[in-house]
Fold these 3 entries.
Entry 1:
Amino acid sequence: MIEAGQYDMRTGAGLIACPRCDALHVEAELTEGETARCVRCGHVLARPREGAFTQIVALSFTSLVLMVAAVFFPFLEVSRMGIGNATSLFGVAMAFSEGWLMPLTVAVLAFIVGLPALRAVLLVYVLLPMRGQGRPARHAGEAFRLSELLRPWSMAEIFVIGTSVALVKVAGLATVSLGPAFWAFCALIIVGAASDVFTCAATIWDTLEDRGAFTDGREVVPDPETAAHDRQIVEGTPPAPDHAA
């Protein structure tokens, strides 16, 4: 751990890189309402917002509820000449659950349902205990790192776009009615976009570090002694022995 305002070019401690142009900046502690932008391209590096953790948690719970509706409610109904059939996303996946199409079922459930739901659960696990002045949960740093790694692989919006293109072609052959699960997926995309707007990774990392959660050992904290004491409380480790005597 190092104090705010210091940095180490060898390890990268105290520095933050712009995710768009890779320009290096000295990491600084921000207060709520302040915004840190890249001096080269103007990309927002950090933007603490009051109540952002509570909003992200609420949006994550909303995503989980919408995901349940999107999976088990009727997704669409296809009818022709008075004969129709309605199915859900879970029913479609189970239709390919036998034989050599089993990997397709696993891929559908994992990328469209499993990963977005897992990411929402991880965000709740990380941010729910830290609302207000709460301390982070055990392994909160690892959980948030995993949620960031899963972000590019959450493909609910890709699924909706692909389904819409397919429905345009099917509509010429039969009557297609969209079920509540389709609109739940559309709402899920909107909620996910809103969650990404409120989520500032740099702010969450700073909060985890300031409240004693272990990240990568290169934390920038206002008071290293206080941060070390908080880390002992979070990790449940006994305090280091005092050899001053």
Entry 2:
Amino acid sequence: MVKMVETEVECCKIVSEDVKDAIVLEGSPELGLIGNILGWLLVEELKMKQIGYIDSKEFPPLAVLYKGIAIHPFRVYSTDGIVLFLSDFIIPPNVSYDMSNAIVDWMERNNSKGLITFNSMVVMEKTGSVAGAANSEEALKKLGELDLPILPFGNVNGLSGSLLTKTAIKNIPASCLFAEVLNQYPDPRAAASLVNVLNKMLNIDVNAQPLLKEADEIEERLKELAKRVQSENEPESPIYS
């Protein structure tokens, strides 16, 4: 029987198996739902196994249906030296501090090699590029080796920001990858832009095609909706007797 270990802080706890010497990924839904969309792709493509969950009385009353089965809304997955913390809801700001402490405590206990978290940046026009930020000169140098543009200034919101600062305090290398989004709506194409970068960072081979296909379908539906709205708003031709 696999031993489940609890890592508990003031308002939340991690109940999971221990996985030593892994790279930790964090995906939670900020603008564009980038982390959540990419996280689900990794679960499917890498056939990741669920090894635990995070729980808190501050979480919304929510269960997630997956293939007809209700699962916990914030889960922990693992495969071949990679651990993924994946949330299906926006983390309440009052929980982020304690949750980041719990995740970093888990990483310390398991001697995790580092952290990669996913976020987004709002742009006026998409170029398809991915930007990065890090919590140390060492981690920043590794991003530079990938020829990623670095965000020199600004704020990192949500759990990503908390984790970058908490890991820095514990001298755990961490980086954040930013996809370009235009607004708050789900953006599979933006999430797909992170896949090639992540493949290089982790030496894995994840296929972004499912996200690109989903993006095409969403964009086609939006075009049809725009046409329908336009036709409904067009003035009727005058009728002369």
Entry 3:
Amino acid sequence: MERAIATHPTAGAYDALGAYFGQQEQLACAIPAFRSALRLAPQSWEAHYDLAIALLQHGDAAQAVRELRAASVLKPATPRIQIALGVALNQANQPAAAVDVFRSVLNTDPKSVPALDGLTKALIAEKRYSAAIAALKDAPPDEVLALNLAIAYSNDGKTSEAEQTLSAIVKEHPDYAQAHVNLGIIYTQQSRYRDAAEEFRKALQLDPSDDVARTSYAKALIILAQFDVALPLAQDYLHRKPHDFEALYLMGAIERGMGKYAEAEGLLTKAVALEPNHYDARYDLGFVLAKLGKPEQARQQFEKALQINPSSTEAQFQLSTVLRSLGRKEQASQELKVFQEKKAQTVKQDVAGVKVNQANQYLVSGDVQKAIDLYREALSDDPNNARTHYDFALALDRAGDLAAERDALMKSIALDASFAPAHNQLGLLDLQAGQMAQAEQQLKLAISLDPQYAEAQSNLGVLYGQQGENQKAEQLFRQATENNPQYAQAFINLGLVLASQARFSEADEQLRHALQLKPDNTSALTADAMVLTRMNRHAEAIASFRKVIELDPKAADAHLNLGIALADQFNLNEALAEFSEAVRLAPDSAITHYNRGRVLLDLQRGQEAKPELETATKLDPNATDSWYLLGLLARQSGNTDEAIQQFSKAVTLKPDYADARYMLGRELLHKGDSAGAVEQWRKAIEIQPDYGEALYNLARLLTKSDPAEAKRLQAKFDTLQTQKHIMDRAETLGNFALASAAAHDWPQAIAQLKEGIALCKDCSALPLLHKDLGLIYCRSGELENGRTQLLAAQKLAPSDPEIIRALQILDSQQK
């Protein structure tokens, strides 16, 4: 190959040479060969890929990432490039980026074993064990994936599941050394040292080069006091690694166990010099020194051991013993007293633990005050327990004592700054108080301490959602659902943020998932009902709103939401009943009074509507829509001055309220103030340039005073009509009627449509005019008139889906 390259250097020849060196594990030679191939063929994705693999094997993950990204640009969506990129990112300590890459592969091939292996390893590296478990739930059978699952279970504290998984692996693949190692680790965690030793022995037999298996086996044997069996393992390890802490400590512990204290002293002294803050090494050295009659040196080691682990009773007792042997009886007595106090404190802690368990049960059953009292008693016995302060804080939260809750959380964090739940709860308190910067800081800290903390991720997502950062919020909600697939609130929040972006189908999917987890969750039911409404699935939405009321009949918002949904389906009488109940339950809510007034107006019961709308404006002086509807009522009753007053309030509160400005202009013109009408209509057109009725009426009003502007406005109106394919007076009236209906001026809309039908006779717009009149009758509560007009429209346009749907709604209501 070298002769071929010398006479005729090509990219293929260099690539072949690099591959040869790679097979020989001569990576220092392979990498330059692949670089030469790349120089000759810079657009070859294979050259970039081969170089990246060699760099990855050589330990240069960062450079491998760059080469694989280049290969990916040249050959997009190639699974082996993407999988290698994910592996490189994970090795380069970028597990989050690796997760995204592996997921992109799995989107195309959900059963890809290499992608699932890489994904779950990256999730485990991120400490997102629950997400790794969920990803492997339906994985294809593979021993590597099964091992990843067992590791995820173990790290997530689910030792029973980990043991079951590993036992199944070693039964099916008895020669899989790594599975035996991990099963041994699980047995060690369960204090099953004989079983652990057997698994480590099998692993070492299968792979004699595995030093993790070797040292783990030796440690298990030391605990079992089988020093003679452990000795050759430790001797071999120490021979190969004479300056390694683990080797020195293990050998020292064995010598100590065999009573060879002099030999143990030297080994443990070297081990302590390498890792001065290792408690076991300090304690064992102190024990050996005491046995060798060196109490002063032993004292120093026991004191150091206690600095490392102040709660150690064994070190405390040994220290008092060597002090007594040194003739320092008073100090020995003091240390013995401390030892006895620690023992007594242990008893108190046990008593406190019992009280905490009782308090937890009271909290679950709803007896908050009893729970608070018991938490206080537990804290008097065990004041330095961070978890108890946190539990106490949650009980105070239930009692509404937020100041005391914050104080308890601060004590919890002072005792254990790494306790993520306390930081999350503080962040939630700050979020509720509107202190966004502090909330973000606490929630981010909680997530950094526990990367699979779904509740903290969801809370931070809520914060970003409130700030309009939907992409960040969505990413956090998705992580929360991956990290805890049983956490319904994360699915609800994800559904809400998707709905806010008009992604209703995706939102419905997430909310349905939440309802599978918690079928009676009123938040999920309400959110999904609103999404279903936007998807025109009104019957399902109404059914969901009704279920919310069944679950919580005293919730005013539930009755309000159902009323709105019923009104949208022409069922004004039932809507009125729901709004009336909402008013009864929440008499101080402006929005409930507004909706009751609105539906009474739609039912043409203006005298009853007026006091409701007036109450809404008293409760909320900024209730723009209520002022507007009061203006309509005044106009319909012929009270021009009152109508002007109400419409003026609406436009003052909401200057871009085009309908209110148009109506205000009409009332001013009715009173003879043509200049005022012109001003309002001009502003309405500025706000809404295609406001046809304003254009038309303003053009007519200016015909004499400003014919040039009138002509310009008429031309604009004609252009608008042409764009809407409205060619005659009948269609124009129909268009005006829709604008009047949108402004809730039902009598005006009905009058305009009737006039349009009379003018149209047999024109092409007749089906549309009958349909619009039928729908507007339904909106205003005149269902029989609505049915008559819709049936007339259906004869002229049998396949119109809107007519068919409206008649179906009317039929269902009649049934």
